[in-house]
Amino acid sequence: MTASASDLELSPPERLAVLYAPRAFQALWEGFLLLDRRLADAAREGRDPLMIQLRLAWWRDRFDQSVAQWPQGEPLLAMLHPWDAERAALRGIVDGWEARVVGEDGGAELGRARIEAVCALARLSGIEADQGVRQAAAEWLGIDPAGPRVPVLPGKMRPLAILRGMALREAAGRPGGPLRDFLAILRLGLLGR
What's the predicted TM-score (pTM) here? Predict the structure, then answer.
């Protein structure tokens, strides 16, 4: 896994999930998760809404440009270079965070944008973004926790299987702790469910 591209770090389960992606796709996952954390930090409650919009506008402007036009020196942008063909999905996450802050949709647009970003990540990994990927993403994000049973995801999407599985464990109130979480991640990583 590459060095962190921001002051924000992935959680231990997220770091382990990223490691279960094939090496060629780990940076895609890490960049996606770090971007969402960076945007969440920019849009956190208590900040001036105008300042939030200015911060988000900077990211929106970047994703409206090709990666060749992105400024140098921002490690997270460098990590997101492989997303060039799917920049619209990243822009959607920015728009979703803005809608959550200044809109009244309760985060619905952000949820849809995150699901679309996971589908874009699947396409970048050479996987069809089918209903199983969409459902797994929705369950991970807590959008549709009672959906139909998701089939085992392809190996390239193993991080999604882990993130989904851990979110469902938490939603079900299963006892956690570092050792139990590690064992659950190990099972999800090896079996995909």
Answer: 0.88
